[in-house]
Amino acid sequence: MTSAPETTAPIGMIRTDTPAIGRSMPRAETRRLLAGRGRYVDDGAPRGCLHAAFLRSPFAHARFTIADTSTAAGLSGVVAVLTAADLAPVCRPWQCRSGAFPGLVSPVQRALADGRVAFQGEPVAMVVAESRARAEDALDLIAVDWEELPAVASLAAALSAEALTHPELADNVAWRTEFGSADFDAVFAGADFVVEERFAFERKTGVSLEPRGVLAEFDPAEGLLDVRISHQMPHQLQLHIAEQLDLPIGRVRVACGDVGGGFGIKMHVYPDELATCAAAKLLGRPVKFVADRIEALATDIHAREHQVDARMAVDGEGRILGFDIHDVQGLGAYSVFPRSSTTEAMSVLRAMGGPYRFEAYRARLECLLQNKSLTGQYRSVGHPIACAVTERLVDLAAARRGEDPLAFRRRNLLPVEAMPWTNPAGGRMFELSHHACLDAMIGLVDLDAKREEVRAGRAAGRLLGLGFASFVEFTATGSQAYGAAGVKVAAGDTVVASLEPSGSVRAQASASEIGQGVRQALAQVLADGVGLDPSNVRVETGDTRTAPHGGGAWASRGAAIAGEAAWRAGRRLRGEILAAVAALVQAKPADLDIRAGEVVEVATGTPRMTLADLADLVLFRSHELPAGVRPQFTVAEQYHRDDDPFLPTNGIQAAMVEIDRATGFVRLLGHWVVEDCGRIINPLLVDEQIRGGVVQGIGEALYEACRYDAAGQFTSGTLADYLVPMAGDLPEIAIGHVETPYSGSSVGAKGAGEAGTCGAPAAILNAVNDALAPHGASLAALPIKPVSVLRALGDLGAGEAP
Amino acid sequence: MKPARFRYLRPETLEEALAMLAEWGDDAAVLAGGQSLVPMLNLRMAQPAVLIDVNRIAGLDRIEIIGERLHVGARARHAEVLRSATVARAAPLLALALGNVAHEAVRNRGTFGGSLALADPAAEIPAVTVCLDGAILARSSTGERRIPAASFFEGVYTTALRPEELLVGVDFAPLGPDFRFCFREVSRRHGDFALAAIAFAGRIEAGRVGECRVVFAGVEESPRRLAAVEAALAGAAVSDEQAWRAAGDGLGAVLDPIEGAEYPAAYRLLLARNLLLETRRQLEEEAAR
Ligand SMILES: Cc1cc2nc3c(=O)[nH]c(=O)nc-3n(C[C@H](O)[C@H](O)[C@H](O)COP(=O)(O)OP(=O)(O)OC[C@H]3O[C@@H](n4cnc5c(N)ncnc54)[C@H](O)[C@@H]3O)c2cc1C
């Protein structure tokens, strides 16, 4: 582990006294999950539970009338066949609106489509039956008259507006914007040279192991809707279920058990999930819906469909002067509710050029409606696109100057002394460690040896390449993003901690555990905050009935935001404990400390009282306490960051690839990451977050695509068509760290969950282009397909681009 | 993704199974390893009225030498064929191919006969069965047909098997000890179906190809021996790269590759050609050992 230049010690953090923070520990629930004791949505059902299946549109765009539901309803085992008209009285329509995107065009959406569908897979009717199989049987019996309408699928079709995604609109533009520096033209005019490229990115999706699933139960006596769901932010959803179903928020409980992966797909309002809640309310019986793999691939939010025309200006000394980017985003049939699909594109624009110093910027954006599934915030939202575009331009510029791409980067990376700095794209940069990461990466890769390997391999006729990608990932978003735009998304988190009998600590946190291990991280922070072993701290999350309202899991925020709340709660509980013990043993609180669950004298380490004895006394025999000693052994801390809308994090990735000229396949021979997420609470969890993120980035670079044909028919509906990278095809992913703690918090943690995904596609794209360069070929489209590689090399005739 | 309703029958004997097939014919589907059928049921692409599970029938999974010939029972699991010493001796090409079929978990259930009956264009087993001129044994309650592999595959997912017939096994006549075998495959990830694969069997005498057989998987709709390519290679030296290149260049006139948006016909043709050249290299390397 390499250290960043010394930073000031964060407030309240005793840097030598953190036995738990910084320790690699498996998650507390690992044993349970490995033993098959996970409790996912489909693992249980209450008595009398009904199962829902949806009739989904087979067309990308069509008008329809449901001619008959009576045959389906008459099938034995079927309890109800529901259409838009049935759900209308219990579930309001919704519409994406955001102050951040004034004039956003996104029509009203309903739990079940009413007379017109705008994407294939959109639910039009719902069968509730005694089993899922029976419900599916009944789907076949619903008679629908379809009138197909012209569909908008590709970006080109959307731009041309020959067909309209929604017939009532004038064109397919959901939103557009344009901004830039005042001196943009002058700066570009004065450039020594300008490199440019057109980039294309295909849609992909999250592919969580556990698909979306919901089990809703309505108790008419209490008027309470109880919702078990696989979701990243139960509190946000609670709010929307309450609003759409017209229930007081206190009459909606949303609870997440184990969540088998989120990646951003489980943070939106989905029609099928709301329809399930509405059906439960309507029928007064528990109703369960679990998306199958086709439903997941077709209707989980997609992401990353962009075409980017980008230019970068460079001066005579090889300094980056500025960027010019025109992004066209394929947004889908609606802007996703409540967070909006346009957010992804804005994230691209903000992250452009992130690691570098530059003067001028111009950005143009068109977000286009299409008759395709909705898009949304998938892991590392927008950043991988900005990173791939920026880093490819950087390599092009280095090549143009005949220069080592790392030398070009070293000159242009934003140095420590130039921060804090707000760049022309609007990104506020501070406490980043680009040069330290670059140096660490060179060591981690053993760069000279790898370059020699490439040279020797090429001499022997092999197509080898090395690629690099510096990156900035904005994490732990503050309320300036959604809150300021009037979108009800909590950016703060709360931790409630209590001293329990036996001296252990129990906490409720508003963060969400979705497999990333945040509960373990919070337990480690609380353990150090109070002064006991993490095994004696139990953190619970995910249930709106017990956890206070808060943000959940998004924007790599768990450690940075909930972690800070946990630290503060832990310190406060520690204060209560020390004050109580000081009064009991007639010492000064300052002379006491809590170590390994025991109150000791600071100076000598002499034990004065165990937390177990103290809890016993306070909880069961409080009448023995001296007058005036009334400790509060339940404390709460709410943490909202006031300044710094985002915590930027940084790093660099490297990839080594080989192209097989006989097939066009790209084989990844090695992948390296050095990143800086501030204080590392648990290195094991951070490293696995990075690795998992890199694997999703590898998928983005080489395998994954949600494809549609020209008529908007989805053609990637199974895992035989939608390829994810598999362990057997992956190289070792080596990871190194630089630690520059965030100085604005006590813990100093920033986000770590998305960095891997951010830089991996760019590093691989650059590596592939490095391998292609000696053959006069290059590529600028992701994923990199075997056929494209061979066409670029001239080994395969051009044809209709696949 | 739940199957439509079906009746489930589980015969204990071959006779019972054949009687059921005679009764249900087209309305029935045979359940062997279920690795292809069960997904098709779940997707409701297959909606048979009756499922006839042949997993209880004794003896249907035998792998043995009968007389001169290797017999592979229809229900022999991929994993068993892959590891069978008998297969390795009598028909090593089968084992070479099976290493490319799916992953361990699928190979533990998937069956030899199931793969033949399914007739996926990209499957390995049909191609090697054609390459080895296997005889496919189709039994019905009225008797048994021996169908030469060359006339068994009729197109994508279609075979010469009749609705009332059960595929019970395949017989392979031995090829001489001077035969060399080669199986090479291009698939996107480990265990994926082939984008293109080549099965080669050839007599190599004094560094020259004698009689030989060339079959591709994944390239055309059904596997078949390519007489023109076999003729072009006959007599060519293994070291004669030119001759093999010429044979490879001739593939364009011989093959009718599957067209697709992501993998156009020209790409599969290129893969086929490169696989042929790789086959030569492998033969050369093996000869040098
Ligand atoms: C993830 C995955 C990857 C795979 N990869 C590959 C691969 O790379 N290469 C490959 O070749 N295969 C692959 N397969 C398919 C696998 O090999 C199948 O098991 C095989 O093709 C069918 O065999 P089965 O025994 O499972 O047949 P089943 O699924 O039980 O049946 C398949 C069809 O054959 C019929 N049938 C089965 N047995 C008989 C019989 N004795 N008589 C008459 N009809 C019969 C059935 O009615 C059905 O129509 C893969 C499968 C999976 C799930």
TrEMBL record, chain A:
**Molecular function terms from GO:** iron ion binding; oxidoreductase activity
* Keyword Oxidoreductase belongs to the record: yes
Pfam family name, one: Ald_Xan_dh_C
Q: Please give the SUPFAM superfamilies that the UniProt record associates with this protein.
A: CO dehydrogenase molybdoprotein N-domain-like, Molybdenum cofactor-binding domain
Residues in Aldehyde oxidase/xanthine dehydrogenase a/b hammerhead domain copies:
35-150
Report the domain of life of the source organism.
Answer: Bacteria
Q: Which SMART domains match?
A: Ald_Xan_dh_C
Q: Does the keyword Oxidoreductase apply?
A: yes
Keywords from UniProt, A to Z, are: Molybdenum, Oxidoreductase
Checking PANTHER family in the record gives: ALDEHYDE OXIDASE 1-RELATED, XANTHINE DEHYDROGENASE
**Protein name as catalogued:** Xanthine dehydrogenase family protein molybdopterin-binding subunit
Automatic annotation (TrEMBL), chain B:
The Gene Ontology terms for molecular function here are: FAD binding; oxidoreductase activity
Can the keyword Oxidoreductase be found in this entry's annotation?
Answer: yes
Domain FAD-binding PCMH-type stretches? 1-177
Gene3D superfamilies attached to this UniProt entry: 3.30.465.10, CO dehydrogenase flavoprotein, C-terminal domain, Uridine Diphospho-n-acetylenolpyruvylglucosamine Reductase, domain 2
| Signal peptide bounds | none
Q: Keywords for this entry?
A: FAD, Flavoprotein, Oxidoreductase
Any matching Pfam family: CO_deh_flav_C
According to the record, the segments passing through the membrane are none
**Keyword rRNA processing on this protein?**
no
Which PANTHER family would you find in this protein's record? XANTHINE DEHYDROGENASE SUBUNIT C-RELATED
State the name under which the record lists this protein.
FAD binding domain-containing protein
Superkingdom, according to UniProt? Bacteria
User: Which PROSITE patterns does its entry note?
Assistant: FAD_PCMH (PS51387)
SMART domains with a match to the protein in the record: CO_deh_flav_C
